[in-house]
Amino acid sequence: MLKRLLAAPILLCAFRPLFLLAAVSAVFCMAAWLGFLLLGLPLPAVPGGPAVWHAHELLFGFTFAAIAGFVLTAVPEFVDGPAAPRPAVLALVLLWLGGRVAWSASGVIGPWPAAVLNVAPVLVVIALVAPLLWRDPARRHLSILWALLAWLAVTAGFYTDVLRGEPPMRSLHAAIGVVMVLVVIVMSRISMRVVNSALDTLGETAVSYLARPPRRHLAVACIVLFTLADVLAPGAPVAGWLALATAAALFNLQGDWHLGRVLLRRWVLMLYAVYVAMALGYALIGVAVLTDLGSVSGGRHLLAIGALGLSIFVVMNIAGRIHTGRELDTRRWIPAAAGVLLLAAVGRAGWSWWPADGALLLWLAGGGWLLAFGAFIAHYLPLYWQPRPDGGLGCEGVMDSD
Amino acid sequence: MIGIVRQWLVGLPAYLWGGWGAIASLLLLLASWEFASQWLDPLALPDPRTVLATLHGLLTDGNAWSELGVTGRRALSGFALSLGVGSALGMLAGLSMTAAMMARPWVTVLVGTPPIGWLVLAMLWFGASDGTPVFTVFVACFPPIFIGAMQGVRTLDGQLREMAQAFALPPLQRLFDLYLPHVLSYLFPAWITALGVSWKVVVMAELLATADGVGAALAVTRSQLDTAGSLAWIVAVVGSLLAVEYLLLEPVKREVERWRTLA
C-alpha cells in the first residue's frame, strides 16, 4: 500500500502535493473566512481568535506549503543536487496536514500539538535543503537558507507567544516580512530567466536583464529593518519611516525591469506587478503609521494578497508546470486570474480604508482570491494526478518559452 | 547642443526612477533620526515629523520662500562668479607648466585660509550688504574650481592632440570634440563640490553678517532656542541643494561624461 502510494504520480516531485494543498487551503481558508465575516458562520476557536486563525492558516498553512513545494523543487535544480526523497515528501505532507487539523482543534486539545506539527515541517524542509545549499561550492543560494531559518523563527515565535498566553499576531506580521524577503530573493532568480527569455522571444538583443544585487540587498535590508521595528515597536514612527524606505527601495528595484516593451509580456508583467503591489503595500503602511491617512491593515493586505498571493500564484504556474515536463501555459486564464488577484488586493486594501462599504469590497476581494486559486486547482489537479507526458520520473524540467 | 538636450530628456525618466535608491537611503536616515529623537530631549533633537511640520508651516506662510530666494540669489551669485573666474583662470594656468607651478602655492593659501577668516575680511570691506556673503562664497568656491580646470587642461592627452593636428581638425571641432569633453569631465565634479560649498558658506555668512536670508533666520531660531525651527531651515537648505544637484547638475554631468563609458 505504502509502496503504491510512494510510486503514485502525485508524489513524483515535492511541488505536486504541496502546490495542490497550498491552492486547496487557499480556497478553503478564504471561503471559511468569508463565511465568518459575511454570513456569520463559526470558525474554529483558537488562541487569539478568528483573525489569528485566518492569518495563521494563510501564512503557516497556504504560504508555507507553497514555499516548501518551491524550495524542494528549485533548490536541487539551482545547485544541481538530488531531489527530496519521496518518503520524506510524504512525511512532510502528513505533518503539514496534521498541523492544519491540530491548529483548528487547538481550542479543544490545547496548542502543544499544533506547535509541534507546525514547527516540524519547517525543520524537515530545512533538513532537506540545507545540505544542498551548504555543499554548493559557490554557496550562491545561502540566502534561501537564511530566509527558511527566519521562517522557523517566526513559526516558533508564534507558538511561544501562544503557549505563554500572549497576543501572537506580531509573529504573523513578521512572517509576512519573511515571505517578502523570500519573494525578492526567489524572484531575482526566476526573473533572470523569465525576462531574458522574453527578450529573446522579442528578438531584442541590444538589452539584457540583470537583477542587480545592490538594489536587491538594499530592498531586503529595508524589509528586514521594517519587520524588526514592526515586531519590537508596532505602530511607532520609526516603523513608519522604515516602511516608506522599503517602498522606495522596492520602486528602485523595479528600475531593473524597465527595458521597454518586454515589460508587457505576460510572465514579466505578472512578476513586475508583484513588486508594484509590494512597494504600494509598504508605502500604505508607512503613510498610515506617520499620518492619519490610509490604514496599516490595508497595507498589510496589499502585501499579503497582491505581493504574496500573486507571487505564489505566478511561481506555481511557472515552476509547477515546467517541472511536470510541459511548456508554460499560454492560455488567457492565467493573466486573467492574476488580474483578478490584483483587484482582490486593491479591494481588500480599500476595505480597510472605507469599512462602511465593507460587504461589497470584501466579496470582491475574497471572490477574486477564490477564483484565482480555484482556477489553479481546476487546471492543475489533472496534471499532478498524472505521470509526466515526456516520460520523466522526477522534478526535472526545462523552460524555453516566455 | 540640441543632441545633448534630447539625450537628457530621453534619459530623464530612467534617471528620475533611479532616484528611488537615494530616496530609500534618505528615508533610512529619517528613521535613524526618529530613533535617536526618542532617546533625546525634544529641545536637543525634535523628531523629524515635528521638524517637517515646522518647515511646512514656514513654506505655507510664505516666509521660507522669500528667505530661500535671498539666500539662493547670494549663493548662486558667488558660485557663478567663482565658476566663471575660477574655470577661466584655472584653464589658463593649465596651459602653461610654469603658471601651474606658480599657481599651486596660491591655491594652497586660499584653501588654507578658513572661510570664517574671509568672512571677517568681507564684513570689514562690504559691511552688511549682499557683497559680504557673495564675496565669501566666491572665495570659498574658487579653489576647487580652479584646481579642477587646471587639472583638466594639464591632463589632456598629448597624443590625441597630435592626432588632431595631423588630421588638421578644424579649431572649433577640436575644441568641442577633444578639449571640452575632457576638461568638462574634470570641471563638473569640481563645480558640484563648489555648489555644495556655496550653500554651506552662504548660510554661515548670513548668520553673522546679514539681516535676511536663511542664515539670519537660523540666528533668530537659535536665539529663541527653537531647535525644530533651526532644523527646519537646515532641511530646507539641504533639500534645495539636493534638488539642484540631482535634478540639474547630475544628469548633465552624466551626459557630459558619457564618452568615458563609450571610450
Task: Present the secondary structure layout.
The complex is a heterodimer of chains A (402) and B (263).
Chain A (H helix, E strand, L loop, with lengths): L1 H6 L7 H25 L10 H30 L6 H19 L1 H4 L2 H24 L6 H22 L5 H34 L10 H20 L4 H18 L11 H25 L5 H27 L10 H21 L4 H28 L17
Helix pairs in contact in A: 2-3, 2-14, 3-4, 3-6, 3-8, 3-12, 4-6, 6-7, 7-8, 8-9, 8-11, 8-12, 9-10, 10-11, 11-12, 11-13, 12-13, 12-14, 13-14
Chain B lengths: L1 H38 L8 H13 L2 H33 L1 H16 L2 H12 L4 H24 L3 H9 L4 H39 L4 H10 L3 H30 L1 H5 L1
Helix pairs in contact in B: 1-10, 2-10, 3-4, 3-6, 3-8, 4-6, 5-6, 5-8, 6-8, 8-9, 8-10, 9-10
Walkthrough of the structure:
The complex is a heterodimer of chains A (402) and B (263). Chain A has one domain (2-196, 207-385): Cytochrome C Oxidase, Chain A (Up-down Bundle). Chain A is 75% helix and 0% strand. Chain A contains 14 helices and no strands. Chain A has helices at 2-7, 15-39, 50-79, 86-104, 106-109, 112-135, 142-163, 169-202, 213-232, 237-254, 266-290, 296-322, 333-353, 358-385. Chain B has a single domain (48-262), classed as MetI-like fold. Helix content of chain B is 87%, strand content 0%. Chain B has eleven helices and no strands. In chain B, helix 6 runs antiparallel to helix 8. The longest helix of chain B is centred in the last third of the chain and has 39 residues, at 171-209. The two termini of chain B are 20 Å apart. At the A-B interface, helix 9 and helix 10 of A face helix 1 of B.
